[in-house]
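Sample entry (154 residues):
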Amino acid sequence: MTELSTQVRIEPATAADVPDLIELLNILFSIEQDFRPDAEKQRRGLELLLKTPETACIMVAKAGARAVGMASAQLVISTASGAPSAWIEDVVLHPACRAQGHGRALLQAVARWAAAHGAVRIQLLADADNAPALAFYRHLEWEPTRLFGWRKFL
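Predicted structure, serialized as tokens:
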């Protein structure tokens, strides 16, 4: 993997990438305390995102035919902005491909997609205990908010 990690390109995900994306989500959800890996749920979620390209996208970092990183974005309407904004989720890279600019490139790609779809703001949540992720977002000049994430399952 390490020798491939410098030969990475960023492109929209396709259905053929889903198995690799499930593996990446397994890495991510093994870190995050709020989620647990569940391959079938991840498959369903990825397929739903791929079926709605007008409101959602998944960008992948590809090394050869293999997806080694991903970031997803979904549009929501912001009453604060009076325009769409995009929620970015599932930002993850295979460990061998980190610290090489691929995460930045993935975030730039989903930001370009969001702007092209009318979004005026991008936002994301990060696990409070994931110090490397928090440092990464600070390094890229993301600003923390004073809001807390809350959830309730239906």
